[in-house]
Amino acid sequence: MKLMWFHLMPYTELPDDFREKNPSVWVDIHSSLFDPRRAHHMYNDFMDELEFAAECGFDAICVNEHHSNGYGLMPSPNLVASSLARRTRDTALCVLGNSLALYNPPTRVAEEFAMIDCISGGRLIAGFPVGSPMDTCFAYGQNPSMLRDRYYEAHDLVKKAWTAPDTFAFNGRYNQQRYVNIWPRPIQRPHPPIWIPGGGSVETWQWCAEMDYVYCYLSYYGYKAGQATMTGFWDEMKKLGKDLNPYRAGFLQFVGVAETRQQALELYAEPAEYFYGRCLHIDPRFAGPPGYATEETQRRGIKGMVSQAADNSTRQTQRYETKFQTLAREMDAIVDKGYVIVGSPDEVVEQLTEVATNLNVGHLMMLLQFGNMNKELAKYNTRMFAEKVLPRLSHVHSEWEDHWWPKPMEQNERAAPASFVPAQAAAE
Amino acid sequence: MTEPTTTSIEVNGFSCRVWTAGTGPKIGFLAGFGGLPKWVPFLDRLAEKRTVVVPSLPGFPGGERGHTVLDNHLDWCLAVREIVQKAGLDGADLAGSSVGAAMAAEIAAIWPQSVKRLALIAPFGLYDDSDPPTDPWAQRPPDVPNLFCADPKTWESLKEQPEGLNSPEWPIEQVRASEAAARIFWPLGNTRLEKRLPLIAAPTLLVWGGEDRIMPQSYAQRFANGIAGKSEIKVIPGAGHLAELDKPDEAAAAVLAWMQ
Predict the structure, then answer these.
(1) Which of A291, A298, A321 sits opposite B182 (nearest CB)?
(2) FRET pair for A359, CA 20 to 30 Å: which of A296, B58, B111, B139?
(3) DSSP secondary structure code for residue A318 in this structure
(4) Are the beta carbons of A291 and B71 separated by less than 8 Å?
(5) pLDDT class for A325, splitting at 50, 70, 90?
(6) A225 near A252, Cβ under 8 Å?
(7) ipTM confidence
(8) What pLDDT, on the 0 to 100 scale, is given for residue A426?
(9) Contact at 8 Å (CB) between B210 and B251?
(10) Residues of B whose CB is below 8 A from A286
(11) Which stretches of chain A sit within 8 Å of chain B by CB?
(12) How confident is the model over B63-84, as pLDDT tens digits?
């Protein structure tokens, strides 16, 4: 299986009373909390960590897109990916991804991804999320009633821009361009592998199956909460007559490794509590703009909620609060609910083997830096994982072939970027 | 309560419900944010004196998923124009509330012959940086009733599922109404209607709830300043954004007096 190293780039210095004093980490988080001079160090630490993960032997390093977000400092993951393309050699670059409907014209995404693919010698994984309501509808003002249609249309345009040999006119419902002819073109033919980060909507699963794309469930709530979604995904694949190749799927999991479980609990409690306490402090008024969820998803959701309400005797109005307001925020519960897997290497190997097997996931995206974790601890976690966990997991799912992995240029054909202060890099 | 007759018209391949009640010269009504999942007392009051005709707007309760084929403001204006014509309201008096009032104003501006007298209850369509309207979509569901109505129970009883219905489609229809409004008015509610106000020749009554927590009362004057025809502002104390729901008697009396 593939072990991938994912960075959200959280702002690491939100104040202790952030929850009490601020309505939301996202959309209207206050600018006074952002210190650009501190962010200078954060970005550089984060990029060091990503490069370190690549050096340690992870199969891919992953970045993603958020806007007006205190736990995601990458409005443009492409900027980070292009730097990583220069500072890494063989690791796949997974940009998960660009929210297609936000780009006008969407060919911008085709161009930038093609640039990254060229710079990296064909190592790009192209992620196309619809994007969260907070990012798309609120921070970027997109109309929730048109977002999905725009997304699908932009997808068609980007894919055609990558693959059509000749200049073409695109006569879409939302986009009209007389001359589409992107330069550069991606190295990978017909195009870089396309992965779709999504929620649990059946339409997305069906679309991934139809297009033969990887479906990624990027939940912050871990493997226990993710089980139902992944089961739903695989049931749908069976129904559609698809094979159950685990590489059709990706899954995100927070992990903290140390010599012992006790030590891991001690080391990772603070960053985990920071993440679940401060970073996921999201005002529910930004969670559900009308039209963002399709009516079919609402139908399923409402039925699910009704039975859930019956189970928990929760009042109807409470369900809107539930997701963001009643999350576990203390380490015991965070671990108990499976949001973060912590333990000794043996314990983590055992648990992740279970996760990969039970969820039938071939692409595991590890969050080994989370919350306010500093670079030293992030590197320790990464090194421990790379040395003591990764080698014992890579055989899982080896009976399957990953058809959705980048196909870069041969190593001896690729450029050798000049080293940047090699003495300092070696000293670290 | 008056029992309206329900008919339907077709616009862009979608069915639109039309309620009709009462006798006398026609008066059309285009509902506000959230639409009308149920007949309301305000319509009874109008029907006591006039024939009241209430066509649904696309995507609003009774309007199916008609909003999904409307991609821009011209599409919306043409669809509403067609609805007004097919409902037999061309040339009649026209009233509207909130998002429906904005569409009524568009019709009166673009096709001046099609509206005799106009009554607008707290219309959407403008945006003033110094006094912005409340964001009607970024709200916690428990806060919504109190934003749209002075008395939250007014909203709740309108949106409550009728006894014994228990359909999963009911709540979906209510979300759809909010989505349809978003489709025209996202994100600021500003359709640049201000540019077209000078085209409105019909005498126009501007009704505002004294406790409107969505659309600031200052907008009444902005509308009055822009409209070419005669206009008058009437504030109804104790009413919220959807004044016709909070204070049906007062709102209907004001509209009827203007349309006489």
Answers:
(1) A291
(2) A296
(3) G
(4) no
(5) low
(6) no
(7) 0.95
(8) 54
(9) no
(10) 138
(11) 137-138, 141, 143-146, 173-174, 284-286, 289-291, 295, 298-299, 302-303, 317, 320-321
(12) 999 999 999 999 999 999 999 9
